[in-house]
Amino acid sequence: MITVKKLGKNFGPLKALDNINFTIAAGEIVTLLGPNGAGKSTLMRLLSGYLEPTAGQIEIFGKTYTSNRRQILSQIGYVPENAPLYGEMTVFEFLKFMSAARNLSAKQIAPQISELSDQFELSEVLNQKCETLSKGFKRRVAIAGVLTSSPRILILDEPTEGLDPNQKYITRQFFKDYAKNNIVIISTHIMEEVTALSSRVILLNKGKLVKDTTAERLSELSPDNNLETAFRRITNKNK
């Protein structure tokens, strides 16, 4: 379980997040939704240990980064929006590197790479350098890379960006299956993604948590029962 208590993050005079509170349990796919500058990326970086909070705390399975940083990081996989890869490596070399970095044994690495290659349809590009891949392949390789260690928490920024409809379907089905025993957190601007994947929506605006609900209930806050309309009404009401 993830427990966030009175979480805040400042960058100088800018208050990027202010008094954020929520819990997430295994079995959930939670979407972080909000306009640009709402604090979604900051929140993901705090959850993944990349940033330290200015206020409040984050508990991961009852532990905090302050005293159990290495143990917590071993249970988290984070893929930011730009899906960083080592361009000079082949896909196979990258997945092998990620497996070794997560302390998988030599006996574990080959079957894990094979399974992930099948799952994300990477077999045809295993010997291709990462820098030569299309955007969709880069996205899938980056996701496969963090999955080499089977993290209990998977955090993804725009996870299906650049994927074609068939690839989106396969990837979404994987996330749904993976979330049955783990926690999946995604951030997206694509409303189709929200309705297709989310069990919960955490809506941020101007650094504050304004809604913690389901996509269906969020849609009901608009006259036309439309998620995009509800999003606009809530995030633009103070403008």
Describe it for me?
Helix 3 crosses helix 4 and helix 3 runs parallel beside helix 5. The protein folds into two domains: 159 residues, 3-Layer(aba) Sandwich (Rossmann fold), CATH 3.40.50.300; 67 residues, no CATH class. The chain has a six-stranded mixed β-sheet with strand order 6-7-8-3-9-10, sandwiched between helices. A four-stranded antiparallel β-sheet has the order 2-1-4-5. The chain has 239 residues and is α/β, with parallel strands linked by helices. The radius of gyration is 18 Å and the shape is globular. Helices cover 38% and strands 25% of the residues.
Order of helices and strands: EEEHEEHEHHHEHEHEEHH
Q: Give, in spatial order, the strands making up the sheet with the most strands.
A: 6-7-8-3-9-10
Describe the largest sheet. 6 strands, mixed
Q: In terms of quaternary structure, what is this?
A: single chain
Average pLDDT taken over every residue: 91
Q: Provide the CATH superfamily of the largest domain.
A: P-loop containing nucleotide triphosphate hydrolases
Name of the level-1 CATH class of the largest domain: Alpha Beta
Shape: globular
> N-to-C terminal Cα separation, in Å?
36 Å
Q: How much of the residues is beta strand, in percent?
A: 25-35%
Per the CATH scheme, the topology name of the largest domain is Rossmann fold
